[in-house]
Design a protein that fits this description.
6 helices; 142 residues; 2 domains
Length: 142
């Protein structure tokens, strides 16, 4: 069972590395081409912000792969029944998918229509705030 989880964590590291490489490539391309508009700057900033979080998790996963105890703690953390129950209560998968699609739509419309962009930005932030509030509420309740 732990071998499967170890493979899963290793795959996460590979995808995280690919994401980081893509963001770094986009930054280099935008600097070479000289894309200076606000839409590109926002998109790259958004990508760099996510990359910061990805790098944090890469460190966590690398540490878990190097230590059997840390790997077990990560496994327990991810398979905790209480956490799963709270995630089910707040509609975890559904709200995560909606946040993802609103964020992607926001990044696309950033290049076409500023009104739609700001509306999608507000909707994305609203969804994130709702998720955080619900998670805090159910953490205290459950």
């Amino acid at each position: 069972m732990m071998e499967n989880f170890q493979k899963k964590v290793h795959k996460r590291l590979i995808f995280a590395g690919i994401y980081c490489a893509i963001v770094l490539t986009l930054i280099a391309v935008s600097m070479i081409i000289g894309l200076d508009d606000s839409a590109t700057a926002f998109t790259l900033g958004f990508g760099i912000g996510i990359e910061t979080v990805v790098i944090f998790f890469m460190g966590k996963y690398l540490g878990a792969l190097k230590s059997e105890d840390k790997l077990k703690k990560l496994y327990i953390e991810e398979n905790d029944e209480r956490r799963k129950h709270i995630n089910a209560q707040i509609g975890g998968t559904g709200i995560n998918i909606s946040i993802l699609f609103f964020a992607l739509a926001m990044l696309v419309f950033n290049y076409f229509n500023q009104t739609v962009f700001f509306t999608l930005l507000a909707v994305t932030l609203f969804n994130v705030i709702v998720k955080i509030v619900l998670e805090l509420y159910y953490n205290k309740k459950v």
